From TrEMBL:
GO terms for molecular function: metal ion binding; metallopeptidase activity. Gene3D superfamilies: Metalloenzyme, LuxS/M16 peptidase-like. It comes from Salinivibrio kushneri. Keywords: Hydrolase, Metalloprotease, Protease, Signal, Zinc. Coiled coil: none annotated. Residues 60-149, 535-649 form the Peptidase M16 N-terminal domain. Belongs to the peptidase M16 family. It comes from the Bacteria. This is Peptidase M16. Residues 215-389, 681-858 form the Peptidase M16 C-terminal domain. PANTHER family: NARDILYSIN, NON-CATALYTIC MEMBER OF PEPTIDASE SUBFAMILY M16B-RELATED.
Length: 949
């Protein structure tokens, strides 16, 4: 069940009382002032930290966590799309891209992180822009050098060429994330209808293409000078750090950067509506959707907390009012509610997803009737108690990740000037009562005007909730672009007394905490593998049953998915709602997810509630309800989902890959099955699959958490088989590959698509940890296996054709593939294929350089320091080892291969596997527009009709 409540509350402590020390526990360097230290009591979910401030206004938050040899660094600037000028939308996000293009002393920011085994990225929202990276702990100084250089020395490195390429990249990103995605323009449309022109939330974060086309390099420089001073930034560092040394480095690299202009505080700007607005959005979708959005209060208030509780009860989870009234009964495919707050305003959203051809007027009536019934019934103290239990668990689970703790501190300080806000939120949650929630409902939602967006398939305006009475007309901002810029800000010169050309060396070595695995083969048929992790009082369990989709009969494709869905509908006398409520009261979660070889039941629990959680899980696994009513509803939902997935270009490309590479029906079938099989399926088929495959024999049980091996084995031994093992058990389908063909282009029509999805695919190898497949994966690293690889640098950074291009070497138990992919501008489709072909041919014929081999070694050598931090990551490692019968130290064997691998050995894999003549080319896009240009490439062009239905 999604925990949307957490996104609204951020993180709420379950224990009160943080201690503030009155004097600095650390001797600070000159130019840095200690502000406070927050030391929560033992067991609290509050993140402990120290706060400092540099003379130039930079706020520094430090959190020590020595449990893993890594550090996370977050630099957050208090500027997002809300601080853009009208007519220059998207600039904050565009500028985020420019910050990765190198600065005066740094050629490539991302490359300098990747080469030490770290990862980095950035994000922009309406209110802030975030830059973050996680690296092995001995590379902290390198990160501070990098971040300070782009804060203090960016503008001299900005060129017109970089500017133009990143502008193209942002346009491609908009097409990839919004314009070529089903329902991608919904949020943009809501904001246009809700906020008046000029309101900071009225335009999309990613911006409008026409605005991006108007800006120039001078605009970029002024944006940097206005918003990117240290006094508008928060530097948050968490992980395996030495506070004294970290402050010395912060002073060294950031201390001389001059302040920017004073930034005025932002005041909330909530909006009101005088009457309902009805907006129509035609899209390339199958299912109609109605979204009703109500403007509400300002963030971080008693009212916003009550509305968040209301959203949880009304529309989040299987036990919510909307789900029980409309989805459980089969009247809608999906329905929910959420309360969302930015820094300036909050909104309450209620949505309903209909079946193909269902009227949104009917859906609006269903939603409003449900709200009326809800008001008559109200909510209970038990509802609020359940939410508090969920929050308790969420807080504790959030402590498992350093980057999660760092992000929380950074966000709270940037938006509210205080990183220690948990007690305030906790007191607000404690003060919520059913009466106050219902008062907020009547004040903000009941009979209040809102924006009603009807999303309908193109040409089906007959399905709208009501005729449109609001059509957004954006003003023409072209005149603004020609207006002289008033009072431009002068350049700020950072003293260059420090030799910033030298990359800081690593400081010592890191010791990777590889999990120590214990195992047991039990009489009940379970193979148990686990590790002890005592950082938080939690337990993560994964029970994998031999019930995967590769065990489905060829005429029952989809039965594994339907069976897994039926399990979560309840059992042993519990309904789905009752199961959800029981788990929520414990702060636990359970999910059932089918894969190729197994269906995995995943459980997370606080240690103190593990016994009760396992009892609930066993009850539904051993005695599922399997009601005819639930089956028919889930079957209809599955069929609707199958119709909707054909709207997604990426899914079409994946299905075309399976269809071209395999002959047998099971391996060609998409995840979830095919419509003709599901249409004919009966509840008896589900029961039969359950009886044949939901057995403990040949199952795997992964246990990670605050349990000894003896305790875990004892728990697993208590699991009794709930049914006998059938005579014919776990028959797995075998792949039947299609014969290799000469290269051809296979064109899948997606009319009017603004982007083209391109895939070059071929058969590969089954998975191996240290053999040819592993070495080919190493060879792929510099072809398309990282951001700085050849094909991404070519198509994204040099040509501006795409938001991203990459390649991958994938292997499973029985088969494997090699795939090259890019989603490109439609007008660059043929040229993009030429470039991909050229890059692959070059790698095939000439291999890689010694410099690329050195980069591969640098990037991969220290990655394990980051790989086993959370229980989820530890469980994934153990599951992988068990699935392929690997040695516990197989990563050490891989590292030895990495360091001993010669360029000749690497290039031998490239010569064997990267010949473009061995690949089939899949193109998903507007066939009428593309076909002529594709034929000029000199390869056969075939229209491919997918048989996924």
């Amino acid at each position: 069940m999604p925990r949307l409540l957490l996104a609204t509350f951020f993180l709420l402590s379950v224990l009160s009382g943080c201690q503030l020390t009155g004097s600095s526990p650390t001797q600070t360097p000159e130019g840095i002032t200690w502000v406070k230290t927050v030391s929560p009591p033992a067991g609290s979910a509050q993140v402990p930290y120290q706060q400092f401030e540099l003379d130039n206004g930079l706020t520094v938050l430090l959190h020590e966590d020595h449990s893993d040899p890594l550090v996370n660094v977050d630099v957050r600037y208090h500027v997002g799309s809300a601080r853009e000028e009208p007519g220059k939308s998207g600039f904050a996000h565009f500028f985020e891209h420019m910050m990765f293009e190198g600065s005066e002393h740094v050629d490539d920011h991302g490359k300098r992180i990747k080469e030490v085994g770290g990862y980095n990225n950035g994000s922009t929202n309406r209110d802030t822009t975030q830059y973050y990276q996680t690296v092995p702990a001995n590379e902290l100084e390198r990160v501070l050098w990098l971040e300070s250089d782009r804060m203090g020395f960016l503008l001299d490195a900005v060129s017109q060429r970089k500017f133009e390429v990143q502008r193209d990249t942002v346009k491609n990103e908009r097409a990839f994330r919004i314009d070529n995605v089903p329902y991608g323009r919904v949020n943009e449309t809501i904001n246009q209808g809700l906020y008046p022109e000029g309101h900071p939330y009225s335009w999309p974060v990613i911006g409008y293409v026409e605005d991006l086309d108007r800006v120039d390099v001078d605009d970029l420089k002024q944006f940097f000078l206005r918003w990117y001073g240290p006094n508008n930034a928060t530097l948050t560092i968490g992980g395996d750090i030495d506070v004294q040394q970290t402050l010395a480095w912060v002073k060294k690299y950031f201390g001389d950067i001059p302040k920017g202009p004073t930034i005025p505080a932002t005041a909330p700007q909530p909006v009101t509506l005088e009457a309902d607005r009805f907006v129509t959005l035609e899209d390339k979708v199958s299912q109609p959707v109605l979204v009703m959005t109500f403007p509400t209060s300002i963030p971080e208030t008693d009212t916003s907390m009550r509305l968040s509780v209301l959203a949880n009860v009304l529309g989040q989870g299987r036990d919510s009012v909307l789900y029980q009234s409309l989805v459980q009964t089969g009247q809608l495919l999906s329905a929910g509610a959420s309360h969302q707050c930015g820094e300036l305003a909050c909104t309450f959203e209620i949505y309903g997803v209909g079946r193909q051809g269902q009227s949104l007027a009917e859906i609006r009536t269903l939603l409003t009737q449900t709200l009326t019934q809800f008001e008559a019934k109200g909510i209970s103290d038990e509802d609020i108690d359940q939410i508090q239990s969920m929050v308790e668990a969420d807080n504790i689970f959030a402590l498992q990740s350093v980057d999660g703790k760092v992000s929380q501190l950074a966000s709270d300080y940037t938006l509210y000037g205080d990183a220690d806000r948990m007690n305030q939120r906790l007191s607000r949650l404690d003060a919520v009562t059913p009466k106050l929630v219902m008062e907020s409902y009547r004040q903000w939602i009941k009979d209040k005007p809102g924006v009603n967006v009807s999303v309908v398939p193109a040409g089906r305006t007959d399905l709208v909730a009501a005729p449109a009475n609001f059509n957004y007309q954006r003003p023409d901002y072209r005149e603004m672009a020609s207006t002289p810029k008033a009072n431009p800000l002068a350049l700020r010169e950072t003293p260059n007394d420090l030799d910033r050309t030298q990359i800081p060396p690593p400081h010592g070595d890191v010791t990777v905490n590889i999990p120590r695995i214990y195992r047991a083969d039990l009489d009940n048929g379970i193979h148990l593998a686990g590790t002890v992790s005592r950082e938080t009082p939690t337990v993560t369990l994964q029970l994998s049953l031999p019930a995967g989709s590769l065990m489905e009969p060829n005429d029952k494709r989809g039965v594994a998915e339907l069976t897994a869905s039926m399990i979560t509908e309840g059992g042993a006398g519990m309904s789905a709602a009752e199961l959800t409520q029981a788990l929520d009261k414990l702060g636990s979660q359970m999910s059932v997810n089918p894969g190729g070889y197994h269906t995995t039941v995943t459980v997370t629990s606080l240690k103190k509630h593990l016994r009760e959680t396992l009892q609930l899980t066993y009850q539904v696994l051993s005695a599922p309800t399997f009601s005819e009513q639930d089956f028919e509803r889930l079957k209809k939902q599955a069929l609707e989902s199958m119709a909707a997935r054909a709207d997604d270009a990426g899914w079409l490309a994946e299905q075309a890959t399976s269809q071209l590479l395999y002959q047998d029906a099971t391996f060609r079938a998409p995840q979830g099955g095919v419509a003709q099989d599901v249409e004919a399926m009966t509840l008896a088929d589900v029961k039969r699959f359950y009886q044949q495959h939901y057995v403990l024999k040949d199952s795997e049980f992964i246990v990670v958490g605050d349990l000894s091996s003896e305790h875990a084995i004892n728990l697993a031994n208590r699991i009794q088989p709930w049914q006998p093992v059938p005579e014919r058990h776990a028959q797995v389908a075998r792949p039947v590959p299609r014969d290799e063909k000469s290269p051809q282009i296979w064109l899948v029509d997606k009319p009017q698509a603004p982007q083209t999805s391109i895939r070059m695919v071929r058969h590969g190898m089954p998975y191996d940890a240290t053999g040819a497949m592993f070495k080919t994966r190493l060879a792929n690293f510099n072809l398309g296996g990282n951001f700085n690889a050849r094909i991404n640098q070519n198509l994204r950074q040099d040509k501006g054709y795409t938001y991203g291009a990459h390649s991958g070497v994938y292997g499973g138990r029985q088969t494997g593939t090699i795939e090259v992919s890019a989603d490109v501008r439609a007008d660059a489709s043929a040229e993009a294929i030429k470039e991909l072909w050229r890059e692959m041919a070059h790698a095939h014929e000439n291999g890689f350089t010694e410099q690329e081999l050195a980069y591969l070694r640098q990037s991969s050598g220290q990655q394990d320091a980051l790989n086993y931090e959370t229980p989820w990551e530890k469980a994934g490692l153990i599951a992988h080892i068990e699935a392929y019968n690997l040695a516990d130290d197989y990563r050490e064997a891989q590292k030895a291969i990495l360091y001993s691998l010669t360029r000749q050995q690497l290039n031998a894999q490239a010569a064997r596997w990267f010949d473009p003549n061995d690949y089939q080319i899949i193109v998903v896009g507007d066939a009428e527009r593309l076909e002529g240009g594709l034929r000029q490439l000199g390869l056969p062009v075939n229209r491919l009709a997918l048989d996924y239905r």
